[in-house]
Amino acid sequence: MTKHQQILTFIEDLAIGSKVSVRFIAKELDVSEGTAYRAIKEAEGKGFVRSIPKVGTIRIEGLKERQIEDLTLREVSQIAEGVVVCGFTHLDRSPNKFVIAAMELNTMARYLEAGALCIVGNRRDAQIFALNNHSSLLITGGLEPDEEVVELARKNELVIIQSPYDTFAVTSMINRALYDRLIQKELILVEDIMVEDVSFLTIDATVDDWRKLSQTTDHSRFPVVDKDMTLVGIVSAVDVAGADVKTPIKDLMNASPFLVGRDDPVTHISRIMVWEGWEIAVVADQGKLIGIISLQDVIEAYQQVQKQPQFGETVDNLVLSGFRFVDDAEHLTIEGEITNAMSDDYGSASCGVIVTVMNMAGYISLRKKYRLNAITENFTLYQLQPIAVGTEIVVTAKLLLVAKKHCNIEVEVMANNDLVAKGLMTARIGDKKLVSDTAH
Predict the structure, then answer these.
(1) How far apart are CA 317 and CA 288, in angstroms?
(2) Is the pTM of this model over 0.70?
(3) What domains are defined for the chain?
């Protein structure tokens, strides 16, 4: 269970009426205030807590068991871009059923029940029938209910929502909202999996200090910090190999470790670690050491994530997951197979997939050779031939020009020794140069 999930469980278990604050959660569960804030906002969205002006955030009753596919009448009105005619104080109710009034009244009686929401057009008889069965109304087509219908709704403490869209459009919009909620993905951040109790060496440590710490912890890589915990480097077994025990660590360490922030998404960080061979990423906040994550931490996190269908993967990662590096001293080259998931309606590789692979090859080549970050500004595809599913392709990125602010990269795709795609990628280089890793 991630820290985020632990906080949500903790909030659910609080007594009704308890005050919930960022500082309280951070202190009770020993998490950062940023993590606590995000969890409280999600708890508010789920209906566990409510923010009340001049009072604060309070644990409330009634929505703890709410299912992910439940929508409140307030959310329904927003989805359908509707106007609430009456029942403003009851908008936090969740309809237990949606009924479309496209049938005779005697047939509707089999489906209507107290707490349902009836989607209806200008059928006045159906509107009154639904209200008499204690069902709220969503009136479509921009039609206004007459005064008798409104009074009946007020008497029965029901809600009437008026939407400008027709019945088909409204039901499609609600279905889409339910679908989006069911497949909602939660982002895993670095701070959710990082190790905060970090073993480290100080700037005045020696190789002998490294050996003692390594024997104590069974680790071989350690961040190096100065007296105020500002990160100055990282040292590994490769760095100290063959060095005298009295040699200062500062003379051997890699002064440019792979730095990440607490709020960086693990999906993005994991891709860099895998493609560029990083085993360790150091977590820093304003230059100060606050944690560390290893490639093993990332793998274990994804093993847990795969058991939870609400978590998802990025398109880039899915496309590139089957590709591997080719030993090429001159250019960046990757190879992989065109799978069914990459195909279009005609059984060939989708143009979008090919461009994604080519663009990522160019991006990775720039990072590996120059440690530069870049944003693609233009990608011109000069040639593209149909590539059948099951074909092994080889993608090669050639750096044509790397200037201070921009670069040009030519990317070729080969299949069975034939050129099947070729493009030119123009990218804008970021202001900061990425760190290098001499230890790997």
Answers:
(1) 30
(2) no
(3) 3-59 (1.10.10.10), 73-185 (3.40.1390.20), 190-302 (3.10.580.10), 322-429 (3.10.129.10)
